[in-house]
Write a structure and sequence with these properties.
Layout: H1 7-22, H2 27-32, H3 34-43, H4 45-60, H5 64-70, H6 83-130, H7 133-136, H8 138-166, H9 172-197, H10 211-218, H11 221-230, H12 235-241, H13 247-263, H14 266-275, H15 277-302, H16 310-329, H17 331-341, H18 348-376, H19 379-398, H20 412-423, H21 425-431, H22 448-453
Helix pairs in contact: 3-8, 4-8, 4-9, 4-10, 4-11, 6-8, 6-11, 6-18, 8-9, 8-18, 9-10, 9-13, 9-14, 9-17, 12-13, 13-16, 15-16, 15-19, 16-17, 17-18
Amino acid sequence: MGVAVDNAAVYDAVLKRRQSMMGASGPRALVRNFKVFRIALFACIGGVLYGYNQGMFSGLLEMPAFKSHMGEYDPFDPTADQTKKGWLTAILELGAWIGTLMSGFIAETISRKYGILVAVTVFVIGVVIQATAQYGGHNVILGGRFVTGMGVGSLASLVPIYNSEVAPPEVRGALVALQQLAITFGILISFWIDYGTNFIGGTTLGTQKDAAWLVPICLQLFPAAVLFFGMLFSAPSIFKSLGLNENTTSLLATGVVGILLFVFTIPAVLYIDRVGRKPVLTVGAIGMATCHIIIAVIVAKNANQWASQAAAGWAAVVFVWIFVINFGYSWGPCAWIIVAEIWPLSSRPYGVTLGASSNWANNFIVGQVTPEMLNKIGYGSYILFGLLTFLGAGFIWFFDVIFGSEGTAQADFERMAEINREIGLTAILQGLGGSESTHYPASEKLSKEEKASATLTE
């Protein structure tokens, strides 16, 4: 006579065993999983390329030698139509959007690894095209940045997928957040390279050499080569609108943005798996929205008197820096984490593609309209973005099913079912009298921590 077996009890025992093997999250977990950490860190060179390209170009737009080749696309007159200048920036986002849409198919067809290699190759082609802008002018920059965008868009999708799938659950959030840390590192070094090369020959039209902008463009090829053979705007113009009219001063203020963004992304890498996604995203959104509103008030009061109100201009700049701090530890890294982990394995490449393409599409829109918004409605731009960010905080707070405080785990049940089949656990349960269904009767009783532990099956 057979002995009845409680399948739910067997399942719960296995789940608790996985939890005991998982270990705590945080910095020590990165040390224990150093090999995986090292692999993910190398893949994140793609994020360095993305960040460097974004940050580097914002500085180029302010260099007189670069402006002289762009004509009406980067006019010397600050009151001129800025629509075409917006295209110089936004064309990269458009290319990235297309590259992102293609990345899901590429990842499934030729694998994540070779998808990254293809993306790097496309990126290099775009950089080479941009380097000929000394002779081809704005058309070459537009074409080169579109191609480069396709490369960085693919990298921005493929690297989080790759990192999320090589990571054990206790460090998965940290390793995906490495993508944002790498992006901020690329932005950081690009700002200061721009600041240094800005002095080549001089800082005025007629004295500045073309090398001032050619060197930052060509330097992108080095990390691209390292990644390939070993295996993401507008800040200076915003600072000018706040009264920092000296070109070198606005570039210096932008360089501080790069430092803050990099430094304050580090805590997310170390502690996001311990603190959780929801509180970090909510607090970050409230902080950013508040900075927007404060800057709007300062600009509204002093827009026509920056020359005599230098302190007000610097106060606005400080709140831009505080905004960057809030973005650095919250939405910067967490957005990539959420997109990479809420999708089940069967649809993850396409899900990440959808989420990342939304990011690029919105970046394209913002890059296209922001110059005109700052020119036409001034402080109203900050109010609009502030209200949208407050709405984002509310959305995160009230949709707890998606943004759980200990990660998301909703897609982890499918991962667990798939791995259980591969290791034979499902067959064992069926042999003990269970059905072929992959439903887990005790899952509804699990705590958040127990649900999160199910991700060990990756």
